[in-house]
Write a structure and sequence with these properties.
The structure holds 2 protein chains of 2 kinds.
Chain A lengths: L2 H12 L3 E6 L5 E5 L6 E6 L4 E5 L8 H13 L7 E4 L4 H4 L14 H28 L7 E3 L2 E3 L4 E3 H8 L49 E7 L6 E6 L9 E6 L5 E6 L2 H10 L1 E5 L8 H11 L5 E2 L5 H10 L2 E9 L11 E6 L4 E5 L4 H12 L6 E5 L15 H12 L6 E4 L2 H6 L7 E9 L5 E10 L9 H4 E2 L2 E2 H4 L12 E7 L14 H19 L3 H7 L6 H17 L8 E7 L2 E12 L2 E12 L6 H21 L4 E2 L2 E2 L17 E6 L14 H16 L14 E2 L1
Chain B lengths: L1 E6 L2 E6 L6 H8 L18 E4 L2 E4 L12 E3 L7 H12 L9 H14 L5 H8 L9 H16 L1
Parallel strand pairs in B: 1-5
Antiparallel strand pairs in B: 1-2, 3-4, 3-5
The chains are: A alpha+beta, B alpha+beta.
The complex binds FE2/S2 (inorganic) cluster (2 copies).
The site of one FE2/S2 (inorganic) cluster has 12 residues of chain B, from loops.
């Protein structure tokens, strides 16, 4: 019987046409045909095409390339022809091994998938090798695979030729993984991104692009103040707008769903509706009062983040010959992903299908089923490309999924509804990086040695009251408020860190690198101030505070030296330096700037990163570039301010995004490492801002302690 | 109101209210979704199309003003400059989330049509209306220079 015939018969009998390799919910390797209950990590179709199933979504961070690299490497597949597909929402099968839930965040995608995806690829390869050996009657040690071609030295076969017999074999529970010297794709300097072609010809599908037969478009009229509740509305004027369908109050009092036959009709109709709100529980204050409230909170910290308490450190401060004192103020920041939020829900025979650039399927799935009163298995989430997130697409409340579900249900649950946000909705919409205020008082002896350090932070907690509280809050302290500071790698003696929660109806959220967005700015500015105070080189000071017998501190010293060396840093030069450790990744930055009067131009950033084994060096570089740009734009110019509770900024003309002329040249050095791979989506952000601030100080003598930098009278050209 | 628009070389007829931005006609009525919505106020460039060959922000272009003109969207790019730009974008792996990139490419093609050898400053100024929140600007600039070199060769 020829192989061709046998495969066809078997496939016909099995009613399927693909070899699947993945894991059981208990984490055991499993393989089978398409009709099996297995949810795969890799699928090999009857035409030999390999498809990698991505349990993490793609928001630009490069995961679709990274996870695919892991499978293709172990499988010895042909890179150019491997395809990608997003996994369905199924927590048991596709959970993030670090969260226990299906979701992407905290720069964990590669870290938690590294062994899992390699194992799936290796198991698939092992099945193909055994099947080929059996078919040709040779030992498995004779079989080689290169770029998708199987050979025993004499004959060759494609994956398609052996999947039928491979599917009948039991997968090896512990397949042999490659050793680093055998890697052909991992660490390769240039491996074309998997999403490059679709994103350059307009074919990549985002949730914003979904169009279904009979679909209506919905926008939400929300309270102009955070915490306001709808008491009534008048849609008479909207009725005059062609294409307006209806307007309905949301059942939770958060606003009005406005429906149109197309996006423009929905937007125009919303503009024509007037609404009344109850502001008795709303935020009515202005930014100045909010800052003052934060300042007052630092007088008596509610929680302690380090062993030494605020009270205990006072004696050291009062006995010291001098102290270095500083206060830092950080504004609310919007994430403003390029694709405004959007979620499409359509009815199906058994429930609903949701189209979304879904960052945290487990949370979205739970919220959608509860609002729609459906069983979890009646909700299907189809994940599409996400046009950026920077944290915005994961809210513990699944805010925009809930809005979409309410809008869908209010219309009767029979009509597909696309609920979308405008850019104004995004800027006005809350879920900001929290405002934060830091106060530091550092006691120094006559030689400038640190005797004690009283550090206090006030900010609204991101996770309190949410489903993430139990994981991230301990004894009342929200770790995300002080990450990067409470656990600083610098060996600073007698540091106390007191924390207070600011309370406000303004919803806050993780924003690319979370607490590190402010803690790194403060710590790295203080390091620069200390160095200046002591007349010491800022890099030398940092190195002197790291103990290289500790592995993390040694790696931190490694990136600091790498940035120093790649930039040709010499003590006394007018340049800025900062370094930070976040999400298990180390990044150091040297900033070169030109200043004319108060006009600053960032010329070049020299960035050194240690993220363990570099899976895709070019993706790492891209994330350093992008992270630096994201940080610069915000730190230079961005703030969300309130005027009696009303958000002042509306759209990009007021919330100015970084543009091409702002972008510096960026050089990236990836420090070689054999440690397990860690994330790169966020860690480029934290040290970039303080590197710029320290450069501005070096050149102008002005220390910027209130962001954005335009507040201090600088402009950026 | 019924309109006839010439888009990507084909006449298409559609219904829209006068004053509707071309962006929403292209996306919602013609289902050409490569052209993106980013701000609606001519401040981000995600909606850039070519109207009679010139990069144009479709979010503030009323549908009636495009009647009689030639509209090209990312889906309709079909000339040596566009091909060079798209392949340079792939060679440099410019994209991250990708949402801004149709608009970036439409602007870059427009730039190279007007100025085949732009300087860094000319690239900065021509492209400054196109926002990339992922900050892929370093690579966008590299890709434009690569495309220019390829076309020159
Ligand atoms: S959507 Fe047209 S410029 Fe932003
Ligand atoms: S690639 Fe994400 S906005 Fe440009």
């Amino acid at each position: 019987m020829s192989a061709q015939l046998s495969r066809r018969n078997f496939l016909k009998a099995a009613g399927a046409s693909a070899l699947l390799v993945g894991f059981t919910p208990r984490g055991l390797l499993a393989a089978g045909y398409e009709d099996s209950t297995l949810n795969p990590f890799v699928r090999i179709d009857s035409d030999g095409v390999v498809t990698v199933i991505l349990k993490h979504f793609e928001m630009g961070q490069g995961t679709s390339t990274g996870l695919t690299t892991l499978i293709a490497e172990e499988l010895d597949a042909d890179w150019a022809s491997v395809r990608i597909d997003f996994a369905p929402s199924d927590t048991a099968k596709y959970k993030n091994l670090l969260f226990g839930a299906q979701g992407t965040g905290g720069s964990t995608a590669i870290a938690n998938s590294f062994m899992q995806y390699r194992k799936a690829g290796a198991a698939a390869r092992d099945l193909l090798v055994r099947a080929a050996a059996e078919q040709w009657g040779v030992g498995v040690d004779r079989i080689r695979i290169d770029k998708g071609v199987i050979t025993d030295g004499q004959r060759t076969a494609g994956f398609a030729d052996v999947i039928h017999s491979a599917a009948r074999l039991e997968p090896n529970p512990e397949p042999q993984l490659k050793t680093p010297d055998q890697f052909k794709l991992i660490g390769k300097l240039k491996l074309p991104r998997k999403d490059s072609i679709a994103k350059t010809d307009g074919s990549a599908q985002f949730a914003m692009d979904v169009k279904l037969p009979g679909m209506v478009y919905a926008v939400i009229l929300r309270s102009p103040r955070f915490g306001g509740r709808l008491t009534g509305f008048n849609a008479d004027k909207a009725a005059e707008i062609a294409g307006f369908i209806d307007a309905k109050a949301l059942p939770n009092g958060a606003g009005v769903a406005v429906y149109g036959k197309n996006t423009w009709a929905a937007l125009k109709a919303r503009d024509a509706i007037t609404a009344e709100w109850d502001f008795s529980d709303a935020e009515m204050r202005s930014t100045g009062a909010l800052i003052e409230a934060h300042r007052e909170l630092t007088a008596a910290p509610q929680y302690q983040a380090r062993a030494l308490t605020t009270d205990a450190v006072q004696a050291r401060l009062s006995a010291a010959p001098r102290t270095l004192d500083a206060e830092f103020v950080f504004p609310f920041l919007a994430h403003s992903p390029m694709e405004p939020l959007v979620c499409v829900i359509e009815p199906t025979a058994s429930g609903v299908r949701v189209h979304d650039g879904c960052q945290f399927p487990t949370v979205a799935h739970g919220a959608l089923s509860s609002v729609l009163k459906l069983k979890p298995e009646q909700v299907e989430i189809k994940t599409l490309y996400a046009g950026g997130s920077f944290g915005r697409r994961t809210t513990p409340t699944a805010d925009y999924h809930v809005e979409a579900a309410m809008a869908f249900a209010l219309l009767g649950g029979k009509t597909p509804v696309k609920m979308l946000w405008s850019r104004e909705d995004d800027i006005h919409g809350g879920y900001y990086r929290p405002m934060a205020l830091h106060k530091a008082s550092i006691a120094l002896d006559a030689d400038g040695a640190i005797l004690g350090w009283d550090h206090r932070v006030a900010a609204k907690s991101i996770v309190k009251g949410s489903a993430f509280e139990s994981a991230l809050v301990h004894e009342g302290l929200d770790h995300t408020t002080v990450e990067g500071l409470a656990d600083t790698l610098y060996q600073v003696p007698n540091m106390a860190l007191g924390v207070s929660d600011f309370l406000s109806p303004v919803p806050v959220l993780w924003w690319r690198s979370v607490g590190n967005t402010h803690t790194a700015y403060v710590m790295e500015s203080l390091m620069d101030m200390l160095a200046h105070e002591r007349g010491e080189d800022p890099i030398a000071l940092r190195l002197s505070l790291l103990d290289r017998s500790n592995k993390e501190q040694a790696r931190m010293a490694g990136v600091i030296e790498a940035a120093r060396d790649m930039s040709g840093w010499q003590p006394g030069q007018k340049r800025g330096f900062a370094a930070h450790y976040s999400f298990n990744t180390f990044v150091a930055v040297v900033a070169d700037i030109t200043v004319e009067g108060n006009k600053v131009h960032v010329d070049k950033l020299h960035m050194a990163v240690d993220c363990g084994v570099a899976i895709n060096p070019d993706v790492i570089r891209a994330q350093m570039e992008g992270g630096a740009g994201y940080a610069l734009g915000a730190i230079m110019r961005n703030e969300i301010t309130l005027d009696q509770g009303l958000v002042v900024q509306d759209n990009f003309p007021q919330y100015l995004p970084l543009r091409m002329p702002d972008m510096p040249e960026i050089a990236v050095t990836i420090v070689p490492s054999a440690e397990p791979p860690t994330g790169v989506g966020e860690p480029g952000v934290p040290p970039t801002g303080p590197a710029l601030a320290n450069a501005i100080f070096a050149v102008t003598g002005k220390r910027i302690t209130e962001l954005p930098m335009t507040t201090a009278g600088f402009s950026f050209v | 109101m019924e309109y006839q628009l010439k888009i990507n070389g084909r006449m298409r007829s559609l219904n829209a209210e006068p004053g509707t931005p071309l962006l929403w006609v292209i996306r919602d009525e013609l289902a050409l979704t490569g052209t993106k919505f980013g701000c609606g106020v001519a401040s981000c460039g995600a909606c850039t199309i070519h109207l009679n060959g010139n990069p144009t922000r479709s979010c503030i272009t009323p549908v009636e003003s495009a009647v009689g003109g030639e509209i090209t969207t990312i889906e309709g790019l079909d000339d040596p400059i566009s091909a060079a730009v798209q392949s340079a974008w792939r060679e440099k792996d410019v994209v991250q989330c990708g949402y801004c990139q149709s608009g970036q490419i439409m602007s870059a093609v427009g730039l190279l049509r007007q100025n085949p050898r732009p300087s860094d400053e000319q690239i900065d100024s021509f492209m400054s209306g196109n926002v990339c929140r992922c900050a892929t600007y370093v690579r966008i600039k590299d890709a434009i220079k690569l495309a220019s070199d390829t076309l020159e060769a």
